[in-house]
Amino acid sequence: MSTFAKEKTAAVVLAAGEGRRMQAEQPKQFILLADRPLFLHSLEFFLKMPEIDQVCLVLHRDYLASEWADEARSLAAHYGKSLVLATGGARRQDSTLNGLKALGVDVAIVTVHDSARPFPPLGPVMESIRQAREHGGAILANRVSDTVKQVEPGTDVISGTLDRERLYLAQTPQTFRYRDILEALETLERRGVDVTDEAMAFELTGREVRIVTSDSTNLKVTMPEDLERAEALAAQRRAT
Ligand code: CTP
Ligand code: MG
């Protein structure tokens, strides 16, 4: 048994966004994918994982007493795992901070995940937990396959081509030492700094984040057409 085996590990599942780009009647996390609300797929992934001791689901305050919250609770009961609910905030980073604060103070490692990604890949997620234990922070990411151009601010005039060898597209899960990510996000909140993911909070406070190569199944549902891809992937997973 490794010395890390007793470290309490938790997951925060973010499901408090408005899903504006999806333009659906309800926030995208509640849209049905393979007959279940989108957020329930990734929630179940973490509830199932033996390495995860506690899960926090972050919901907008309007949905804390909803059927979705009830479904989440019964799924957690099914897996016999501790589930806490937290209230979402205006920005993603506010939702994350609320989720982190709702977890037990004895949590050592936390993995933060967008419920908009229904199929987190198990191997890379495990690796991110291992790397976070060792180095402090690790995120799932994929290499960029297109050539990326930079333009002059506010124009369509190219000012340069970025070195593709150095570029990755950040995904979630993003895994960190609990105290460090809490402190990083609280520091940035005091300073009034906006971040677009948790890794950025680590980067801006001088902490190291490692890349763990993800895979093509970790798609994010953002636009209506993404749902078709997600359905196809769900069907493929059922068939194997
Ligand atoms: N999220 C959240 N709280 C917020 C904003 C976003 O919990 N204040 C969550 C979303 O529910 C989603 C994840 O963060 O699972 C990634 O955000 P994104 O894909 O941008 O979702 P939305 O913000 O809901 O969508 P949009 O940007 O199109 O409005
Ligand atoms: Mg958003």
In short:
The chain has 240 residues and is an alpha/beta fold. The protein contains 7 helices and 11 strands.
Describe the structure.
Strand 2 and strand 3 form a beta hairpin. The model has no long low-confidence stretch (mean pLDDT 96). The longest helix is centred in the C-terminal third of the chain and has 16 residues, at 224-239. Helix content is 36%, strand content 25%. The protein is globular, with a radius of gyration of 18 Å. The chain has 240 residues and is of the alpha/beta class. It has a seven-stranded mixed sheet, with helices on both faces. A two-stranded antiparallel ribbon has the order 2-3. The chain starts with 7 loop residues before the first strand and ends with a helix. Helix 1 runs parallel beside helix 2.
Which secondary structure elements does this structure contain, and how are they paired or packed?
Elements: E1 8-15, E2 32-33, E3 36-37, H1 38-48, E4 54-59, H2 67-79, E5 82-87, H3 92-102, E6 107-114, H4 122-135, E7 137-143, E8 149-151, E9 158-161, E10 168-177, H5 178-191, H6 198-204, E11 210-213, H7 224-239
Parallel strand pairs: 1-4, 1-6, 4-5, 7-11
Antiparallel strand pairs: 2-3, 6-10, 7-10, 8-9
Helix pairs in contact: 1-2, 3-5, 5-6
The structure holds cytidine-5'-triphosphate (CTP) and magnesium ion (MG).
Cytidine-5'-triphosphate is lined by residues 14-21, 29, 58, 88-92, 95, 114-116, 222.
Which molecules are bound in this entry?
Answer: cytidine-5'-triphosphate, magnesium ion
**What level of helicity do the residues show?**
25-40%
- Mean pLDDT comes to 96
* Strand element count: 11
* Category from helices, strands and their pairing: alpha/beta
Distance between the termini: 32 Å
**In percent, how much strand structure appears in the residues?**
25-35%
Major sheet:
7 strands, mixed
Output the radius of gyration. Answer: 18 Å
Number of helices: 7
Low-confidence stretches: none
- Read across the widest sheet, the strand sequence of neighbours is 5-4-1-6-10-7-11
- Name the overall outline: globular
Order of H and E elements: EEEHEHEHEHEEEEHHEH
